[in-house]
Design brief:
By secondary structure, the chain is of the alpha/beta class. The protein has 11 helices and 11 strands. The N terminus is likely disordered.
Length: 290
């Protein structure tokens, strides 16, 4: 996938990658071709790194999802010869979730490219702090909080989540929950129409039925670190995202001085509907990680 760079006068010196609408047709065609022809060229990691210097790619899922959301990216990265690990995000509390991921990163020798989707972006923002092995952060339709910000503050004013909670979630108490915290399950209509609206309806309904609950405390806990301040970052933004709005993601990405890729359309689950488009951005981070 070929990307154009543009210059933003308000962000002089920063480099942004943008997919134009014409290129979007090429992206979709490439994804369709990959699914129908075993001989289709992939080239999702546009560099040939020696095996001894290849980073491990660690992928952290978001709320109402699990490690299976990264299946397409893991498959593509493995075919390119990389070790990719999609790990479980507890979805309990930002501080403890980040500690879980941070402890996992300590088991990996060598450089790491750390990838987060949705709430997983908040987790990698914290888990990467003070870990010199993390060479790049990749945010996929994700939150990237600064110190003191909560994930819930970053969805954007036009997010589908800015509605009466009773219309959004099935709420369930759970043992040991902090005061007023509840497990949240997205209601079916919200999931199908606003969370994964670019997926086939039967696929979206299966994902809704098998979603993992996320504690409300995960969205209310303030961030204690901001790894993007010192670690080079990449940002994949779906313009059809209705959960974390593209304008909110743009603001966070520019604040992080990230390399930005816009994907026309998609949804909050573009990582599932168009995994090759996401993998190509991970590939760019891999090639820059040193």
């Amino acid at each position: 996938m070929r990307l154009k760079r543009r210059s933003d006068p308000a962000c002089a010196g920063r480099r942004f990658n943008v997919i134009t609408p014409v290129m979007a047709l090429g992206v979709v065609a490439a994804v369709l071709a990959a699914g129908t022809s075993a001989a289709a060229p992939r080239q999702l990691v546009p560099c040939d790194l020696p095996a001894t210097s290849r980073p491990t790619v660690v992928l952290v899922h978001g709320a109402w999802a699990d490690t299976s959301s990264w299946q397409g990216e893991v498959s593509s990265l493995q075919q390119e010869g990389y070790i990719a690990r999609a790990i479980a995000n507890p979805l309990r509390d930002l501080t403890s979730d980040a500690t879980t991921v941070s402890d996992f990163l300590k088991t990996i020798r060598g450089p790491v490219v750390l990838v987060g989707h949705s709430y997983g972006g908040s987790v990698i923002t914290n888990a990467s702090a003070d870990n010199p092995n993390v060479k790049a952060l990749v945010y996929v339709d994700a939150a990237a909080p600064d110190v003191g910000e909560t994930t819930g503050q970053l969805s954007g004013s036009e997010s589908a989540l800015n509605a009466d909670p009773a219309t959004l979630y099935d709420m369930v108490a759970y043992p040991g929950a902090p005061a007023a915290a509840m497990d949240l399950y997205l209601k079916q209509q919200v999931f199908v129409d606003s969370f994964g609206q670019d997926l086939p309806k039967d696929t979206a309904n299966r994902l809704w039925a098998s979603q993992r609950a996320a504690s409300s405390s995960a969205f209310m806990a303030p961030s204690k670190a901001a790894g993007w301040r010192t670690i080079p970052s990449w940002y994949f933004i779906s313009t059809g995202d209705r959960i974390i709005t593209p304008s909110s993601e743009q603001a966070m990405a520019k604040r992080a001085r990230a390399n930005i890729t816009e994907f026309p359309g998609g949804s909050h689950l573009t990582l599932i509907s168009h995994p090759d488009a996401v993998t190509s951005v991970i590939g760019a981070a891999i090639c820059a990680a040193r």
